[in-house]
Amino acid sequence: MQEMRAVVRYSVFTLLMGLWAVGQKTEPRLKDLFRGSDHYDFAIVVPASGLECFWHFAHQSGNFYLTYLVQWMTGLATDHHLYVTVISPEGKLMASVEDTVGLISFETKATGFYQLCLGNYKNHFGGVRVFVNFGVYYEGAEEMRRQAKEGEKVLNNTLSNIEASINKIQNQVVQMWRHYSYARMRRGADHYLLLSNSNYVTWWSAAQSVVIVVAGYLQLFFLKRLFHTNASRPRC
């Protein structure tokens, strides 16, 4: 009788353990998981017509944020816009943005891995380099707003630096083009000066040659006149 009770208890325990294991949430076994820290920032290149996804763990009642900035393009890309989505652990779309610079923030309703996807759908022949900053805060709305303001400040500073670099490069290009145009004009002036000098030397040499020939002929003519003889006596 005791052996029968032990078998029944073991069977019930095994059944309960199986149901408990089925009820637990399984974490995705993917290479781009972020669970060790609450905040991340890095740069990544999204290929042409490509999609890059990341999974970040967050607890319930947290403040999730995501900011991104398209820095530059590669290949034959022409559109800076990037399509960004955030999906909850239940598979619901939490937010989506399609712009060059974007900010996403919301309160997490469930505990689990949130999926972040960056889609470069508008460029079929070139990739884009994106700076990404995301994380979760659990200290209340005030801290979240403060961090969001800091993120916006970082983005504004980055945009200001990029604009200053672009203006500096444009000024340098204008200076280079000015020097190139000046050198080209100088080269043209030197070319026409060489042609003018060549024509001058040619015509002056021809004139001197004519003068020398005429002078020699006249000298020979007068010398022949000195030794001219007639019937009576020679002149010289």
Explain the overall architecture.
- A hairpin with a 5-residue loop joins strand 5 and strand 6.
- The chain has a domain at 25-167: Sandwich (Jelly Rolls), CATH 2.60.120.
- It has a 5-stranded mixed β-sheet with strand order 1-3-8-5-6, with no helix packed on it.
- The protein is built from 2 helices and 9 strands.
- The longest helix has 86 residues, at 141-226.
- Helix content is 46%, strand content 28%.
- The protein is α+β, with helices and mostly antiparallel strands and 236 residues long.
What is the structure about, briefly put?
This protein has 236 residues and is α+β, with helices and mostly antiparallel strands. The protein is built from 2 helices and 9 strands; from the N terminus they run H-E-E-E-E-E-E-E-E-E-H.
Distance between the termini: 174 Å
> Structural class of the helices, strands and pairings?
alpha+beta
Which regions have little confidence, pLDDT < 50, spanning 5+ residues? 1-36
The whole-number mean of residue pLDDT values reads: 77
> Can you count the helices?
2
- Radius of gyration over all CA atoms, rounded: 45 Å
- The quaternary organization reads as single chain
Secondary structure elements and pairings:
Elements: H1 2-23, E1 33-34, E2 39-46, E3 51-58, E4 63-73, E5 82-87, E6 93-99, E7 101-107, E8 112-119, E9 128-137, H2 141-226
Parallel strand pairs: 1-3
Antiparallel strand pairs: 2-9, 3-8, 4-7, 4-9, 5-6, 5-8
Subcellular location: Endoplasmic reticulum membrane; Membrane
Family: Belongs to the EMP24/GP25L family.
Protein name: GOLD domain-containing protein
